[in-house]
UniProtKB/TrEMBL annotation:
The keyword Protein biosynthesis applies. Keywords: Coiled coil, Protein biosynthesis. This is Peptide chain release factor domain-containing protein. It comes from the Eukaryota. It comes from Eleutherodactylus coqui (Puerto Rican coqui).
Amino acid sequence: MKRLPIVALWQSRVSGLHTCAPTYILQRLCTTPFTGPRSVASHSNRNTFLSLSLSGLHLRRSCSQGFSSLWQNKMLQKYLESLITEHQELRQTLSLNLKDEERKALTQRYTKLSSLSALLHAIQEAESEVGELEAMFSDLKSREENEILEEEKESMIQNISKLREEVLRFLVPQERYDMNDAMLEVVSGRTTGGDICQQFTAEVFDMYRNYAQYKSWSFEILNFSPNDSGGLHHAAARIAGKGAYKRLKYEGGIHRVQRIPQVGLSSRMQRIHTGTMTVIVLPQPDEVDFKIDSKELRIDTFKSKGPGGQHVNTTDSAVRIVHIPTGLSVECQQERSQIQNKATAMKMLRAKVLEQIVKKESSQRDNARKLQFGTRDQSDRIRTYNFTQDRLTDHRISYEIRTLRDFLNGEELLDDLIDELHAAADAEALLQLIKLHFSEMTDV
């Protein structure tokens, strides 16, 4: 990396690096044990929702202190040193005569570690430049000159923070299907009375539809089963866009609603009812991921139900497909054509079969992430929407806001919460990775 003269650095302006706001992942890596729900309206406890420690890797309350102490922590630095050592050893190994398959695998690993090595080298260069800049302070007499240097120093420190964040993100393991499209299902649950579950299910489905539009993703409805009062029993949609599944994968689970029904005795008595609905988020598999043998399928046709004119209840356009080995079943009656419904049902079935594969793979991994996010199984209650208090709470990270109806618009507030969830998951995954690395070294 070519180093710029210190005078050029002094006179330059580094755009986008003057904010003092900590980056998301490092917010999570510099926290103390959480003592109460975090509200986005309160900045004093903004970074206190996750407590993480690992064999002496204790993370502090102050983000500025936690940032510095984490980077200087011996375990993290030792882990990075081991990766650089591996990079150097691979360089020597690749100079030897190797079999093609072995060389290909080692080259892929070497290329990945080369990116890490470049980032670490850039950090060392930037830290050296900050040291040179600090040495210039003693030679300056003008207040204006000192202010310019202070501003430049702040920019350089922010740049170092950005590079360190890139290193941490580099270390976080990526999941296999993160870049796939997503299949979203919403299913109405049970309630203590009234039809608030169906109404709430429709609102949540609309929230994700709006979020897809907010992210410029496509939103293709695969199945839609409304009730007579405008609520929703069940619906499914395919969401296509860059990283759609990665972005939405932590939305799966039980969503609880607390509200006063709009009609009936409970409405007149202002009695709060509690209900639930389930969100299911699955990666939409590519054709190359796996194939389903047609001999393993049982396909039934039946007459469509619900609104739709003369075509409904007169032709067998609706399709139900059963995957015999797993017993999984899907049905679609969204289109007027049986052929189109069959094609849509097959997309849904492929996603459900892939879910079984993903669960099997996940069960073979370490279960530490379950402490924070559960199993991502649909039986986990993840969020409560309290309409009477205009409050939303995500129970996994003690996240709380007091603008529930704005949240249901499915735009910036939902996007912010998803950022929080991913930051917490990344922090936990990184610490678990370091823990696993040193436990394997101990075993050896």
